[in-house]
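REVIEWER CHECKLIST
Item 1: Sequence provided? yes
Item 2: Single chain? yes
Item 3: Sequence as submitted:
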Amino acid sequence: MLRDLRLAARMVLQAKGWTAVVLICLALGIGANTALFGAINGLLLRKLPVRDPDSLVRLRYAGPNQVRTDVLSYGFMAPDDRGRPVEPVFSYPMYRQFVADNRTMSDVFAGAPFGRVNLVVNGRAEVASAFISSGNYYQALGVAARIGRTIAPDDDVPSAPPVGVISHRYWMSRFGGSPGAVGTSVHVNNVPITIVGVLPPDVAGFEQAVGDTPDVSLPLALEPQLNPGLTTPPSLVTRPTFWWLLVMGRLKPGATAAQVQGNLAGVFQHTAREGFASYLLSLPPEERARSSSQDRSQVPDLLVDSGSRGVYDASATDIRAVTVLSAVVVLVLLIVCANVANLLLSRAAARQRELSVRLALGATRARLVRQLLTESLLLAAVGGTLGVFVGTWGQRLLPGAPGQASPLDWHLLAFVITVTTLTGIVFGTAPAWRVTSLADVTVALKENSRSVAGSRSLFGKSLVVTQVAISLVLLIGAGLFLRTLQNLRHVDFGFNPRNVVLFQVSPALNRYEPEKQNPLYDRIGERLRAIAGVRSVSWSNPSLMTTRRFSGGMFVQGRSYAPGQRETISGMTVSPTFFETMEIPLVAGRGFTERDDNAAPRVVVINEAAARQYFPNENPIGRRIGSTLEGSGRQEIVGILRDAKYNSVRDRAAPTRYAPYLQSPQGSATFEVRTAGDPLAAIGSIREAVRQIDPDLPLIDVTTQAEQVERRFLQEKVFAQAYALFGGLALLVASVGLFGLMSYSIARRTNEIGIRMALGAARRDVLRLVMRESMILVAAGVAIGLAAAAAASRFIATLLFGLAPTDPMTIAGAIAVMLLVSAVAGYLPAKRASGIDPMAALRCE
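Item 4: Structure as written out by the authors:
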């Protein structure tokens, strides 16, 4: 084996240019597959990097839930085996009851994303991401601090000194990796916190196996101090009908998830009903009586299953993305293998005399095949090593990456070794077997071998046809996704996204009292309107076309509802100038004014979709609605707005309810600033205007409305870019393969072409002869590619928008590009063939 490896190394180094081409092709093909597998590993295979992840269980529930009034949802949850929606959040009192009644788990722990916080370090304020957890969270997971310590159970009591831990990434970026960070006092939402530790770099928490660790993690006991103005009092930790905590546990030795479910299912049902009963007692008598007249006792079923990969499931969108892109990169790898096989075959044909001499000296055919396969595997190993670096860099180009991409672990290492080995065998076996079967001792005495050339040409032609077919499939896919992207950009959004700057402020993070937030927004709005070039200013929560979606119940006063019946509607809270700024016209009624404040009757504006769905045969203006059955008469509909896209470009406008900001205080607001010219040019002036109002108020997510819309079809953009990139790469590789095949064929047929020209053939006849041969191969590849594209079209039909997967214009364009590039690749060797000197060719013969 060592002798074979030494010989293989010498042979590949003799042809440095040829070796470089092979390695580049392999690095691109294996690297693309490695990048995709890294994403698949992070989504579906990798377990939490904690102690004994297989003993973790996650608590969730499925089915109708009539005993909660508020909920916070975080990650994706797949439906259960009965098709019911699944949710993973519980109230804090329910979590405490789980702890008290637990008999099957050694630890029960909880946590939740806390969103953005205002974190002040050494007098400099900045926005950071936060996580809040029970005191035993890190202890139960088995996570030790990088330096210092983690949060302990003693820290999670109201009387304990406020402490927190920071992520490794934040430690490096904010503190430069200094050990002095431990013990530093910072302010989080104006609460003094002492940093007691730094988390290790590979721990993302129990939410998912791969992801970004929040900048700062804090104990649950601090929630009332950290959260003023963000939620209606009382604190979240005392509200039994506000479901917001993620809960997991670690099994006792010998216990199972089914036993945990049997232990806590009754506790869950009982605690949920008791929590809702206490909520009813807190209502005014009139609302309590209205609620008591309806059956509100339906409680979902508790679910307990493995938590080894975290609380969340892999989202259908991410799975679809990696599935489609995996198919693309596998096709690219097949093209690369075909091209490398062609290169190996051409090189092996050039080494025909060498192989024949070896046979004459006593080598067996098996021995020659082993040597050629060793060379192939050596090339594959070097190409695979380079592919790891290409794949690591390429992960950042994937949807959801690098947050969803897995770091190098044994899954990824095993995948690279497997792909490298299979690739070496695939592109090495056929050429080695073909060449050794044609080698003959008599060939050693000859300069050329027409039989070998002819056999090589036949096999090479089939490889070129394969490359053309696969390239056409990728080109058609690229065309379909590019046109989908174009169609999405020309959708009627119902508002004007051009020339609008967006930025978010969250005064509650600076401990602004709720009654002071709206006056602050008014002052910021007045200062922004004074900027030259600003046409209009408004604010809302959330903004249009963001990833956030606020939805709630929809109950119309005077209507009867069956037990458990609940209609939903999306919601926005907006300033009086919002409709004007976003250029959304009113269809009927009126919008909001400054008089729609806390002292005025509650009013709302609905869009046309809501009017069609909930008031199909009546005029909704003047009707009263509410988000709960008890409060169905709280708000009066005063206007109908034209439909505007809410948070999806593809879907029709969702039924939406707009409420005035003065009547619905929020903890944060997104400002919309419409400018007369380039919105990016106004960002500096906007920052200065806000700084003059409050220098400690940071601007969050400064962007433009057009950029925010663009983010809503990020996946389609990634698909279009990936297909265009890999389709172009496949086209280039196929063209190189065609060029190489024709060049080799012409070199072997020099004497034949010379004889033809000596007997009277014109240069154009030779040109036509060679071009016809190359284009026949291309035509065969196009025919096979069209059939393959038609068969695969159903897999991407749901990803397209505004066109069919068999769109004639796209297919015709892809075929035209394929034929044009192939014609150029075939013309160059044909042109050289037509310039052969007949006398030189005859002398060669």
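Item 5: Key structural point noted by reviewer: The radius of gyration is 34 Å.
Item 6: Recommendation: ____
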